[in-house]
Amino acid sequence: MIITLKKNAPKHDVDKLIDKFEGMNLHVTMIQGDNYNVFGLVGDTSVVDEKSVMANPIVYNVQRVAQPYKLANRMFHPEDTIVDVNGIQIGGKKIAMIAGPCSVEGEDQICRIAKEVKAAGADMLRGGAYKPRTSPYAFQGMGTAGIMAMVKAREETGLPIVSELMSAEHLDEFVENVDIIQIGARNMQNFDLLKAVGKTKKPILLKRGMSATIQEWIMAAEYIMSEGNPNVIFCERGIRTFETYTRNTLDLSVVPIIKERTHLPIIIDPSHAAGDYKLIESLSLAAIAAGADGLIIEVHDDPEDAWSDGAQSLKPKRYAELVEKGKAIAKVIGREL
Amino acid sequence: MIITLKKNAPKHDVDKLIDKFEGMNLHVTMIQGDNYNVFGLVGDTSVVDEKSVMANPIVYNVQRVAQPYKLANRMFHPEDTIVDVNGIQIGGKKIAMIAGPCSVEGEDQICRIAKEVKAAGADMLRGGAYKPRTSPYAFQGMGTAGIMAMVKAREETGLPIVSELMSAEHLDEFVENVDIIQIGARNMQNFDLLKAVGKTKKPILLKRGMSATIQEWIMAAEYIMSEGNPNVIFCERGIRTFETYTRNTLDLSVVPIIKERTHLPIIIDPSHAAGDYKLIESLSLAAIAAGADGLIIEVHDDPEDAWSDGAQSLKPKRYAELVEKGKAIAKVIGREL
Amino acid sequence: MIITLKKNAPKHDVDKLIDKFEGMNLHVTMIQGDNYNVFGLVGDTSVVDEKSVMANPIVYNVQRVAQPYKLANRMFHPEDTIVDVNGIQIGGKKIAMIAGPCSVEGEDQICRIAKEVKAAGADMLRGGAYKPRTSPYAFQGMGTAGIMAMVKAREETGLPIVSELMSAEHLDEFVENVDIIQIGARNMQNFDLLKAVGKTKKPILLKRGMSATIQEWIMAAEYIMSEGNPNVIFCERGIRTFETYTRNTLDLSVVPIIKERTHLPIIIDPSHAAGDYKLIESLSLAAIAAGADGLIIEVHDDPEDAWSDGAQSLKPKRYAELVEKGKAIAKVIGREL
Amino acid sequence: MIITLKKNAPKHDVDKLIDKFEGMNLHVTMIQGDNYNVFGLVGDTSVVDEKSVMANPIVYNVQRVAQPYKLANRMFHPEDTIVDVNGIQIGGKKIAMIAGPCSVEGEDQICRIAKEVKAAGADMLRGGAYKPRTSPYAFQGMGTAGIMAMVKAREETGLPIVSELMSAEHLDEFVENVDIIQIGARNMQNFDLLKAVGKTKKPILLKRGMSATIQEWIMAAEYIMSEGNPNVIFCERGIRTFETYTRNTLDLSVVPIIKERTHLPIIIDPSHAAGDYKLIESLSLAAIAAGADGLIIEVHDDPEDAWSDGAQSLKPKRYAELVEKGKAIAKVIGREL
């Protein structure tokens, strides 16, 4: 940790601060500058609260050198983590393709679409049973009936299923029935929910919060991991920016960054980022080329009558075309799909 | 609702869309343009999902005219809502002053600071017992012991108490002990939590999400109100922007906007917005001048040793000076403090 | 143009507004809603200033239906524009590869790097002679000597040259010597400069402003085109967001959007977006897969001693590897490189 | 400057880097950490390019301690700068009130409005003669005729005049006729224009760029000052954020920050930030309470027929009311208006 002091800080106050740090078993090195003096603290600086240090009137700036995450940090875990989902691996050579409707609308609908996306090349099925909707007056999801309809679709197709958990109240239902538990963007810093899923061993798909920095996102993974669950899969779904043409701005630079900083897999959700089916193919192929470990894409066979997010859903035929092109791109970069 | 169709949309498809809307009991008016045709839909358009309409390939654009909120909407409730908190009113002539430490650190600490902020002019006491921290390794709050320490501080000073609820699991504890339940920025779209506090009658301090639009924020209030709880107080605490000098960017334009669009009170939290005690006085006086109904400010008597957020905490003496200036400004705009 | 009036707008004022629009030769259709009334204006609405309409107290909202750009609009020019740069085409089947150092540092340096990037597969040479630097104390570019060094590099390699023009004062020098004139992000709305380059026939590389919406960017192209120069090439170089890990956030969704909305080519600059050489390959391959018409990449043979932007420069060898992979991806999507 | 090296950087490369810095007459202190090693550089680090250092593969991070600005830096110039504009002072006890229409529309209009704003309490007159418009098809300003109409208004009222310069081409006209030269948000990093106005002694009103950080804004002032012109007045006019309800988000925290970091005056433009006349009074009073040195507000006597920006213009009567309230708030914080 590097602490910059203000010019002309009284010697008495500087000494007091040094004593305080040494009392925390930290080693202090001082660099005398022309207008500022700088402390370097060596040791376990995780015990130091940066904001309390900043509260000291002689302090000008505080900067952490070490990353605040440990379990997710590639520095301490150099090899890639591969998350196993009922035999399908995320983070290995093969790129995982997850597809399905935004909302489960009934058993027929989800079973029908499951077969279609499987035929088109999907490895897993997505579908929302509990829906985070901006309006309390909008369809809030089928709940348990939706989860059970997905279970039926899994029985009929063999595809593992992914669904979003919005409240710890339904955790048991998800642990029992679902193969990947999704934590949505709006709950990325719902720390109680993170701790709850951290106590399971289920694979967790952790979506990036709409305005979460990469570091905050990794810290959310760290919350899950610190409770004992190492099976975290990052999912970028666009960040909120000033641009309103797209629903969100897909940030593909996170693919190489997450891989450099952590050992965990990362997949891309182009559907929520773009909010427009016409952009999905471009962004999906880009994600594969960038090195993503998977894609989660909304597919519906009747988008105009979908109960939610129709505008961003691909029809199965277009999805199948995308998968074909994706395969060719995966091969170029030494992967499979 | 205004729907713009693409040029040269096939007549057959246009007619089919008109039929669909008329089947929803909506009246359709058509405006023929040179390059686009426009539908106006009149009636209860809350039954129409914009994104499904957008999924129709002949549709170019969809725009809602009416606001999607009803209970919070000033159009249907012209007079101001005043929220009563144990006899202290928020939203009336008097500006409510809430102060206290970021975290409760013990009974002595919170009782001592409670007395100091009361002496300085505060009307209510804030203090965090359950803390949303970016890191799982940071102090997570005293929990129940912290809530009980605040109850003790209320007994000793008479100040109503405000604290943040992070999970519905602790709702009973909060309903029983706390005077205002705070929903933090990170949980503004934790819809299950919003529904849970909506089932109580407690005043709810609803912080704006870090990247929430004004409309999303009002919709979060609508979630609470639609469950039966009309006692919502908005709290602006800064939004996330590209600027990193301040922790967040305080958006004071929300004060007149929330008052124009809704009938609910709005207070300002300059401490979390600025993240720096040196900026608090300026921003607090600005908030009063802008017409805010209250201020919630972090005050600590030993910021350098605070367990969290020391850098943004005022000492009681500086808080007292701020209250004095605030009184004079309140008078200028016809209010009290 | 769609104008929403407030509820209970006085009939007299509504009639006055209708008269005003009819006086502008616009046809007015009215849709009566429950809480709002809506006008549709048909005709040449480019004569109507939205903000003046909004100034009318009976008006609630104004929305343009037609895009404000004409010359750049694909609606009126369906076929792709291909810009010819000394025989090299941008916007056709072949993806254009532009490479070179951030700053020209001397004739030897630029000639040497020109040969290296040519050998690695580049089609054109970039190099800054006039540099927009945040600090007045930083190296400001070699100026005319830098341009002449680039001319020399062109003579030696045959590569067309691209350089940034910062002021109309140097326009003649650029028209005479440079093959593509670059307008930098900071000058995207320097309207006098746009008009000046619009009076030439030179190809213009128009970088997106750091916080420019897609529409503002297209309008900047419209400024150039409206002066008579149709040779505009868009260049995305990252937008400013809350994320600070990367210098800017590369927005690849603009590739399909620009191609849908306009008929002009679009290329990608991953170097300025990422600010970190380690991210360039991922983002470059993603850009090709997304459908970009070209890439402009910073390459330097001694990044640690570069006079500017060393951290984001690739060494020639890594650039050559990138080109090889890019070729394979281009083939997958039916293009060449 | 603090440089963090990667763990296990080869000793040979570390020594080479130390030699390089010592060759620049910098003193190097090293702090050995567990996972990182840190260099502190002492001396004139303005000669070091951060991005070149970052290009070295053994370097993990680089941080400047000293601010990169000198002339604007309060550290080296502790007393407030007061800019004199024809006898009216900006930055002293009195808060400067600048008002007038967005665009000059003719001599009658500007003279009439000048008298109205003077009667209402304004100290100076604003008016645009050269207009930066998003669309090439919108009114671009009256040009020289507009400037001469403002000169006439000054003759009739005695109010100094403020107008925006968009190109160095018109600099002589502005130096001769205008009292304050405004540099607009879109040109804040048009470095050639900054250098040009830096060569005059005219007061410069430097608007903050739409997505400029505070540091970039101060560096733009430094550009002007480094050419010899110390008369820079900062003007905050809102920044671009995700929120679209307002045109931009007014960032009032810059008032105390600019005053802490620099010695220059800062004024606020609530009109362009809000884009809506209904928000102007709240934001103006807030700006005064926050400590701003002045306000620049758009006033028009017929906003519905204004040639630009009608929606955000106050009528003179409302402006006069605002001035009255502003006077009372100024008094509270020990200032005048």
Describe the fold and architecture.
4 copies of one chain form a homotetramer. With 337 residues, chain A is of the alpha/beta class. The first copy, chain A, folds into 2 domains: 2-63, Phospho-2-dehydro-3-deoxyheptonate aldolase, domain 1 (Alpha-Beta Plaits, 2-Layer Sandwich), CATH 3.30.70.1140; 74-332, Aldolase class I (TIM Barrel, Alpha-Beta Barrel). In chain A, 34% of the residues lie in helices and 18% in strands. Chain A contains 11 helices and 14 strands. Chain A has helices at residues 11-23, 50-54, 107-120, 144-157, 171-177, 191-198, 214-226, 254-261, 270-274, 280-290, 316-332; strands spanning 2-5, 27-32, 37-42, 59-63, 83-85, 88-90, 96-100, 124-126, 161-164, 180-183, 204-207, 232-236, 266-268, 294-298. In chain A, strands 13-12-11-10-9-8-7-14 form an 8-stranded parallel sheet. In chain A, helix 3 packs parallel to helix 4 (144-157). The longest helix of chain A has 17 residues, at 316-332. Chains in contact: A-B, A-C, A-D, B-C, B-D, C-D. Chains C and D meet through helix 2, helix 6 and helix 7 of C and helix 2, helix 6 and helix 7 of D.
Topology overview:
4 copies of one chain form a homotetramer.
Chain A: E1 2-5, H1 11-23, E2 27-32, E3 37-42, H2 50-54, E4 59-63, E5 83-85, E6 88-90, E7 96-100, H3 107-120, E8 124-126, H4 144-157, E9 161-164, H5 171-177, E10 180-183, H6 191-198, E11 204-207, H7 214-226, E12 232-236, H8 254-261, E13 266-268, H9 270-274, H10 280-290, E14 294-298, H11 316-332
Parallel strand pairs in A: 7-8, 7-14, 8-9, 9-10, 10-11, 11-12, 12-13
Antiparallel strand pairs in A: 1-3, 1-4, 2-3, 5-6
Helix pairs in contact in A: 3-4, 3-11, 6-7, 10-11
